[in-house]
Amino acid sequence: xxxxxxxxxxxxxxxxxxxxxxxxxxxxxxxxxxxxxxxxxxxxxxxxxxxxxxxxxxxxxxxxxxxxxxxxxxxxxxxxxxxxxxxxxxxxxxxxxxxxxxxxxxxxxxxxxxxxxxxxxxxxxxxxxxxxxxxxxxxxxxxxxxxxxxxxxxxxxxxxxxxxxxxxxxxxxxxxxxxxxxxxxxxxxxxxxxxxxxxxxxxxxxxxxxxxxxxxxxxxxxxxxxxxxxxxxxxxxxxxxxxxxxxxxxxxxxxxxxxxxxxxxxxxxxxxxxxxxxxxxxxxxxxxxxxxxxxxxxxxxxxxxxxxxxxxxxxxxxxxxxxxxxxxxxxxxxxxxxxxxxxxxxxxxxxxxxxxxxxxxxxxxxxxxxxxxxxxxxxxxxxxxxxxxxxxxxxxxxxxxxxxxxxxxxxxxxxxxxxxxxxxxxxxxxxxxxxxxxxxxxxxxxxxxxxxxxxxxxxxxxxxxxxxxxxxxxxxxxxxxxxxxxxxxxxxxxxxxxxxxxx
Length: 503
What we know:
By secondary structure, the chain is mainly α. The chain is 62% helix and 0% strand. The chain is built from 14 helices and no strands.
């Protein structure tokens, strides 16, 4: 009997030890899986950010193709500086203005980021929450800065197209600093930081406006901001000399020098848009289905807008902006307009409604472009028509077409808010309209201060003779397409020996 009891006790102890080991191994396995998931999310955002950053190449190609050959170096240098100067500004203070790392604190500011963590990324080095547990240990905090920087650089680059061929480089650097460092990140804070008063992630009903905005990837935050700043800058700077006749008609001779570059730039931007929109899920684990649907809606809106834009230009009479030709440049811009229009609602609308958004985007782009010419506001890349008009349309389209199942905002009573045309009560549409209005007021007001300051100090526009000669020759030492003469090879030719005759 004693031996039997001893055997039972031994077995029990072994089972207890084995159970403990199994529990430890399960915990270790769970931790490993959690770590792998976190690293997958980090890589996913890095991949998306790289695509968004590659849009700078698309903007450079598009801009170079849309200007005259005498200004190619100038516009491409500005694109390079957008990325370089923007990185420094976003690091020092832009990211801190946009995203308050202390957003969960009761004193978080709904208007602007005030926590010290994201200014110069100081907290990411010294703050324990960024270097020990959770996503911080797997680089997500770092890659989030890179992702948001790529968006900020895109917003600033939009403006460069509207002031191309006559803006002084020093003035360009000043307004880029203002947009990247303050105008744009404040709008980001309102809509995308959970402490912002327009943010869908703000759970404080007393602080949040309405339902909070749905601007999934930035039709309003990025594109409308850039487009509204663009029209203000273009209006204050004035048209290129000779662009409009005294009676207001547009003069020939101002078309871009390379449609090939325009098409290449359009395709690069389209590719980058998949990082822009799909990357805005912010994580892949648990969001794969949403990301996949975003890819579908993004593609359909852009493709449909291009097809419709092609026929708008071909079929409409000249009095309505038609040309009766198959216009390649107009088709490319219509495609971009469709992508802008679906960016806010790419995760919340059905594919067939993305097609509707694309159709409307083509008409809104055409109307915006015609309006700019009618108002004699010179916008060489149609930045306002593509980004400003369709950024606004994208924000409104969310309030019309968002599906209840896909919506992520609620009203004050906790009820899901969704589009008017999909059965909603209008609460979301009202919030979208109010949010768009305050964004426009903010951007236009500060842009007026910024651009008027540059104008009255005489810094904004290049002198007449430089504009007429071209900024490449005047500012950058020569054309982007130098005509290199054949080098003089006389000195390198072998001298012929004199012929001697026998005596």
